[in-house]
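Fig. S4 source data, part A: sequence.
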Amino acid sequence: MLAVSGWAEDKKPEPYSPELVKRAEAGDAEAQWSLGGCYLYGREVAVRFVVDKDEKEAVKWFTKSAEQGNSKGQVNLGYCLKWGLGVGQDQKEAVKWLTKSAEQGDSTAEYSLGLCYADGMGVAKDEKEAVKWFTKSAEQGDPTAEYQLGICYCNGRGVAKDDKEAVKWFTKSAEHGDTFGQVSLGVCYYNGLGVGRDEKKGLELVTKSAESGNPIGKKTLEEIKANQ
């Protein structure tokens, strides 16, 4: 989620300022979400937030924002609850807030909710429901959801196995810069799964993933070289 991959370009919180605090304290849900983001990351991540990291304070403001129906506040509150950041870990409560956000069309929440259903975290495991939410997020261009959806088609999890459909989503993910999408698409090209075999292109994609620091990309590249 956000704290792992960084803020999505269109979901970056407003920089910390006395004016932001005043608006948040006055009940502005968007400002409350931004202020929560400043505290979640603090100056450890970006000077623009100019406050020390304080997860409890972040949860306080995410909660205020979420309770007013702000989808970004809801998804971030869900994230904190899921992993116990600044609040006691409560996966069921996390699913509650992720669902509220996802039902408003937040692509990050849709992807995260899909993961909950795929892994049975805070909700009964349901791979078909996972595919439903991954699809909603992927259709909005979320690269991690595109990758996960490709995995579902590749392995026949929650949907009929379809290598061509897997390649379609791996391609979208890779084009959006996701390193997991790159290595998965590379493997498909290298082995001719769902696409014409092209070892050169496959190796290029796997190498690109590995050079970006992706552990699976590195391992896959080592295995390919060992077998050449």
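Fig. S4 source data, part B ends here. The first helix runs from residue 2 to 5.
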